[in-house]
Description:
The protein has one domain (6-81). By secondary structure, the chain is mainly α. It contains 5 helices and no strands. The N and C termini lie close together (9 Å). Helix 2 packs antiparallel against helix 5 (75-81) and helix 3 (40-51) crosses helix 4.
Amino acid sequence: MDYESERTRKLGCWDGFAVCTNSINAWTTSEPTPNFESDLDFCNFLIDIVFGKTYVEDLHRFWQKTIQSNYKGRQLAIDLRECDGLHGRL
Length: 90
């Protein structure tokens, strides 16, 4: 129920800043990007988190297309990077 704090990162838990910041920075622009899609590296990163590095090729391609279709903006990566926890809400 904790959030991704310095304390949890030191324990070896999810480090959203380390894994998402480079993608967010690479996608940041002052120009409009109405056709933005997450790159395949980021899609593969998300797929690997859920399914592991061993996967069926067709399933992998399905999820790449699904992620790119459903997450047209950078907000997904920002949300993953800056997750909050439940302790404060409890």
